[in-house]
Amino acid sequence: MEMVNTVIFLPVTVWGTAGTSKDRMIVGLQISLSKSGIKCKEDGKDMAKEDQVEEITEAEIYERFAERYAAQDVPWDAELPPPEIMAVVEEQKPGRALDLGCGYGRTTIYLAQHGWQVDGVDFVPDAIAEANRRAQAAGVADKASFHVGSVADLGFLDGRYDLAIDVGCMHALTPGQLRRYHAGLKRLLRPGALYLLYTRLQENAEPEADGPRGIPQAEITRLFSDGFTLDNLEIGITEMADRAPWKSAWFWFYRL
Ligand SMILES: C[S@@+](CC[C@H](N)C(=O)[O-])C[C@H]1O[C@@H](n2cnc3c(N)ncnc32)[C@H](O)[C@@H]1O
Questions:
Q1: The pTM is what?
Q2: For residue 12, is it within any domain?
């Protein structure tokens, strides 16, 4: 018997300890990258859990997100982006920005409202349609361009960006997509550009039976040691209303 685990984490997220400077509100979705069977026997022997895990396909990941948007079941929908992004707006002068997995466009619209020229990319057309509607309503349609496309195939974008932001998208990529995503960012970011990433970290070698795995911290730093330098890393705990807390992190990479 096979059990398909799709895990959506809700945006009730507290980062760090209340009352300290580490307070953060993060909005994140995580979907399981694996289909894992329940523990079962084959030829009389217990199968190792890893043996039962298949990589989820890109098409399956897309279907899961598309279904959620079609059902308007979008728990990461919020008016404002996380404070880490607002801090960038305060610290950096406006330029060109890329919002990877933009959803309804809260980061794109916020940046556009602060003078940035932004491209938001998401592979779900319903999300992009709503992002366009919201950018129009916010009066920033001239500064916010939304694209239906995969963050793993950014060939449709050109030029040099000063900033790329990913809140909760990268950890949904397959290993193959992840390599293409990294190559796309290397091509598109100008030297010195900031790449700000929020992601779930995979804590155990073994995939969880009922939850997402995230990406191992070492895998992220290994991949981005090619072409980027890690300036800052904040590891925290993301708490959800209905699930056990999980380890997550913000990465501040700069393009070399
Ligand atoms: C957790 S949501 C976060 C949305 C947005 N970043 C925010 O903070 O509101 C992750 C988004 O990534 C998008 N996504 C996941 N994989 C993608 C891919 N390969 N290409 C483009 N978008 C993707 C999903 O459709 C979804 O909108």
A1: 0.82
A2: no
